[in-house]
Design brief:
binds adenosine-5'-diphosphate; 17% strand; alpha/beta; binds zinc ion
Length: 373
């Protein structure tokens, strides 16, 4: 991780009534954490919960970048993977905190992808009724989406994110140097959310993402930074308007009604972001079928998610199972599945209902289009 001394960090503010916080973005920014957290935090006892792969790849550089914290900082290494989002792992973190005499005046840092952020975030929001939290996302998906907005959680009885809290961090620090070591499959997963934000933005940015998709795969630093800034800004804006998902925040579920059902049906053997990409494709067909998206726009808007190259796992999904899973989704009220659909770039409709045969049609078309891509 290069030292970012002197380089200015890009800043996005998440405006919240109770507690606003910044998202700071820049290569090598981790080495500036000490100065960035301010006097009141510099002498706190800190626990950094770190993803095992991140520790393995970047461990030495991390301890070097955080050397100003001297002996105030402890490291808890998390076994990588979704299975770590469990009560068992959570209990281990609580025990560690208690054994090492962490008190109310300590600080938790989540250094990893969505798994680390969700688990460490939940630990921070519950330990001694809540201690401050800093997110340092190291995957594309976490940088553009999951580290922003304050959702935390663990899985329970094979149900994802069943137990959780809203807990806003003090700071989200995105050091793009971490992303350079991400496997391709993780970039592809993050792209699902990047594509989602492209539909929520404007024509200019949408065209930018389409044009530069290959550069994102190649981890081009400038392009990657640009899409992180744009995605994070959109998410920050939505969260500022609706912190606890009572209305507008539903917009973030674009493609997700389908995606959650796909993940469930495939026993979570698919990455979240990839399911979102497939979900967006199905949503576009559905929007056209029910008459809110023109054929011309459908064909144009399909190009971007189809470029992301879906796994063949989506071709064989059982449509009836998907349909039933969507009806039992925790966001479906009174048995009616509600969709978030694109009617144009920057024009997203919430709570759209659809008939069974329209949903089946959209699933069929998604499978055909993905098979051809
Ligand atoms: P997500 O961020 O997509 O929710 P995870 O937190 O499970 O997912 O992270 C996905 C995978 O990427 C995990 O195997 C994790 O160990 C690994 N990982 C996270 N950050 C990096 C990184 N900067 N370089 C390489 N691998 C990483
Ligand atoms: Zn998502």
């Amino acid at each position: 991780l290069p030292n970012n001394n002197g380089n200015t960090l890009k800043k996005i503010k998440v405006n919240l009534e109770q507690k606003s916080y910044p998202i700071l973005i820049g290569e090598g920014s981790l080495s500036r954490l000490y100065e960035l957290i301010g006097r009141q935090n510099q002498n706190k006892k800190i626990l950094a919960v770190i993803d095992g792969n991140v520790e393995r790849i970047h461990g030495k550089l991390i301890t070097k970048a955080l050397k100003k914290f001297k002996n105030n900082i402890d490291y808890y290494i998390l076994k990588p993977g979704e299975r770590s989002k469990s009560f068992k792992e959570l209990n281990k973190i609580y025990s560690y905190l208690i054994d090492k005499k962490f008190g109310r005046d300590s600080l938790l840092i989540a250094l990893g992808g969505g798994v680390t952020g969700d688990l460490a975030g939940y630990a921070a929001s519950t330990f001694m009724r809540g201690i401050p939290l800093i997110h340092i996302p190291t995957t594309l998906l976490a940088a553009v989406d999951s580290s922003i907005g304050g959702k935390t959680g663990i899985n329970f009885e094979s149900k994802k994110n069943m137990i959780g809290t809203f807990c806003q961090p003090e700071l989200v620090l995105i050091d793009t140097a971490f992303l350079q070591t991400l496997p391709k499959a993780e970039i592809k997963s993050g792209l699902g959310e990047v594509i989602k934000y492209a539909y929520m933005s404007d024509r200019k940015y949408y065209a930018f993402v389409e044009k530069n998709l290959e550069k994102i795969f190649q981890k081009d630093l400038r392009i990657t930074e640009e899409i992180i800034i744009k995605s994070a800004s959109i998410k920050a804006g939505v969260v500022a308007h609706d912190e606890k998902e009572s209305g507008l925040r539903k917009i973030l579920n674009l493609g997700h009604t389908f995606a959650h059902a796909f993940e469930s049906e495939l026993n979570f053997k698919i990455k979240h972001g990839e399911a979102v990409t497939a979900g967006i494709i199905a949503s576009l067909y559905l929007a056209n079928k029910i008459g809110i998206l023109s054929l011309k726009n459908l064909n144009e808007f399909l190009r971007l998610p189809l470029k992301a190259n879906l796994s063949d796992k989506f071709f064989m999904l059982n449509k009836q199972n998907i349909f039933e899973l969507m009806q039992s989704d925790k966001k479906a009220r009174s048995g009616k599945t509600k969709f978030v659909l694109v009617s144009n770039i920057g024009k997203i409709l919430l709570d759209v209902e659809a008939e069974r045969k329209e949903i089946f049609f959209a699933l069929e078309m998604m499978q055909r289009a993905a098979a051809k891509s």
